[in-house]
Write a structure and sequence with these properties.
Elements: H1 3-8, E1 38-42, H2 49-59, H3 65-68, E2 73-78, H4 83-91, E3 103-107, E4 125-130, E5 140-146, H5 150-153, H6 162-172, E6 191-197, E7 206-208, E8 213-218, E9 221-226, E10 232-234, E11 243-249, E12 256-259, E13 269-276, E14 280-284, H7 290-312, E15 322-327, E16 334-335, H8 348-352, H9 354-363, E17 367-370, H10 377-397, H11 399-415, H12 428-450, H13 465-472, H14 477-482, H15 491-502, H16 504-511, E18 514-516, E19 523-525
Helix pairs in contact: 2-6, 7-10, 10-12, 11-12, 13-16, 15-16
């Protein structure tokens, strides 16, 4: 069991092969982090309780600031000892920054590592918590007591103009240059839009980056929110500052995260830089920022799939807290559901070393997308649709089934067989059934988006186009999916289920892709050269020659 996860990280769902189209756009540069944040001087934080009291005294010299201005929040930093402790902080719903919020940023980037922390160790995590926050048993430091919330900090003076107080605190701390022009509206609630485009869809028009988290801050005042289906967002706090710093966190409201950054965190973060507190719009461009562009494309593909599952209830949605990694060092994809507990739960390792398994599960992926050889957004959409279909199957079939699926691929990797086997062993039935469903259902999504026709993987021994034939006979995708339970792990049993539920005609339509006699499950896989002389139908790709399809 200890070796199995190492093996399954090297095997994947290799997509169907078809003729390449013309390369209209060229390859995308290899994925890279956009660099480390470079800090400048420490700035005086205007939101400290001390500075807000000074501002109050400046505006209202005849009143007592100590009676009127109180601490509402604490500016803190945590130093998690390990991945388990870092996961605990994320589980509390805290907005965490890996850089201090009261420093000038000379060079923006996606990550920061404190020079006082050894390479490879988790760096300080900065956050702002409520004043009565109950701290976990994780090393922390309170950096400042702060007055941030208008409703709580002014307790004895209802006539106080909090916007004016905030502006005065910026002035007396030397941060007046950050404020909006006083002749304009005093405060804005940040809103805007994040977009991305796919050159081969909808004439390359911009589409919203759907459902991701957006956070913005100036010093320790933090606002957050999520984009809607069209990429628009409106955050939960107003700012007097004219320019605030935005970040996109690929933590989707649908229940999945796309990771990882320089250190292992559940969801990757992309710095969006400083923009107006009134309105901001950022377009993720493939040539200017391939890393963020890829995340946005993968995000939108999964969001679309997940939303359809929720809306139509035809197919089970993937499980909550799904973790997706995008790796440019790999060209293949897999859905092993390691974060969900497949492989680990109930293993010898889990029994003897539960703490180790808990840490392994914490940041291991459920889905890995290998982006090392993709050329188009359509390649990423194809792969995500396929792996998302696997995740739906996992929701219905469960961990025990998935362990056999993983064991099948690991066994084939050891023996040097094709990763999905040949159909001759009992374990091959698990991978065959799982891949049949994923190729079929993922292809439906691809066909719908790109006006295509056919089924990826049609040359594989488990013939996913047989499920498309069932659909053409009138069996809905929902009805097909209902058969893919934990009990279904061979082609023969699927054929028998079809015959029992939908009659001989539908079963014969399915069986045309498979012959009897031979393998242990009672089936012989028929090919185009079958002696019966009947040529079997196969999927065709690509219908639009300019699309490059594996």
């Amino acid at each position: 069991m200890l070796a199995l996860p190492l093996l399954v990280l090297t095997v994947s769902c290799e997509k169907g092969v078809a003729a390449d189209g013309d390369n209209l756009h060229g390859d995308v540069a290899g994925e890279r982090l956009r660099g480390e944040i470079v800090l400048g001087d420490r700035l005086e934080n205007p939101y400290t309780t001390v500075n807000m009291r000074k501002a109050y005294s400046s505006l209202y010299p005849t009143k007592s600031s100590r009676d009127a201005v109180e601490t509402t929040h604490l500016y803190v930093r945590f130093l998690p000892a390990d991945a388990d402790e870092l996961g605990s902080l994320h589980g509390m719903g805290l907005v965490l920054y890996d850089y201090p919020l009261d420093y000038e940023i000379l060079v923006d980037g996606d990550y920061y590592h404190d020079p006082g922390i050894a390479e490879g160790d988790i760096t300080w995590q900065y956050s702002v918590v409520e004043k009565d926050f109950v701290f976990p048993r994780i090393r922390y430091e309170i950096l400042d007591e702060c007055c941030i919330s208008e409703s709580d900090c002014i307790t004895r003076a209802s006539d106080v103009d909090f916007d004016a107080l905030e502006r005065e605190a910026f002035r007396i701390t030397g941060n007046e240059g950050l404020l909006e022009d006083a002749t304009k509206v005093a405060k804005y609630i940040p809103e805007g839009r994040l977009t991305v485009s796919d050159p081969d869809f909808n004439n390359g028009q911009k589409a919203g980056v759907a459902g991701i988290r957006v956070v913005a801050n100036v010093f320790v005042k933090i606002a957050k929110g999520y984009t809607d289906a069209d990429g628009y967002f409106k955050l939960n706090k107003g700012f007097s500052a004219s320019k605030i710093r935005y970040r996109a966190v690929f933590e989707n409201e649908r229940g999945f995260d796309i990771g990882f950054n320089f250190v292992l965190v559940p969801a990757s973060v992309a710095s969006l830089g400083k923009h107006s507190s009134e309105w901001m719009e950022v377009h993720f461009d493939r040539n200017e920022d391939p890393l963020a562009w890829r995340r946005a494309i993968v995000n939108n593909a999964m969001y679309e799939y997940w939303s359809d599952c929720v809306k139509d209830a035809a197919v089970s949605a993937p499980p909550e807290d799904l973790r997706i990694w995008i790796m440019d060092s790999m060209t293949d994809d897999y859905t092993l559901m390691l974060h969900q507990g497949a492989v680990w739960d109930g293993s010898f390792l889990d029994d003897k070393f539960p703490a180790i398994v808990r840490i392994l599960k914490l940041f291991m992926p459920d889905i890995l997308i290998g982006a090392g050889d993709f050329k188009y957004a359509s390649d990423l959409y194809r792969d995500v649709y396929h792996e998302a279909a696997h995740a739906s199957h996992f929701s219905q079939a469960g961990k025990a089934y998935w362990n056999n699926y993983a064991a099948s691929m690991a066994a084939n990797a050891i023996t040097g067989n094709d990763r999905f086997g040949t159909g001759e062993s009992e374990l091959d039935g698990y991978s065959g059934i799982a891949e049949m469903w994923a190729y079929y259902y993922g292809s439906r999504y691809y066909n719908r988006r790109y006006d295509a026709d056919g089924v990826f993987g049609s040359d594989c021994w488990f013939k996913p186009q047989a499920l498309e034939a069932l659909e053409q006979e009138g069996i809905s995708p929902s009805s097909i999916f209902s058969m893919f339970t934990s009990e279904l792990h061979s082609i023969k049993s699927l054929s028998e289920e079809i015959r029992n539920k939908y009659g001989n005609d539908c079963a014969d339509c399915f069986d045309v892709y498979f012959g009897f006699k031979s393998f242990k499950d009672g089936f012989k896989i028929r090919g185009d050269d079958d002696k019966s002389g009947e040529k079997l139908p196969v999927g065709k790709y690509p219908p639009r020659p300019h699309l490059s399809v594996k």
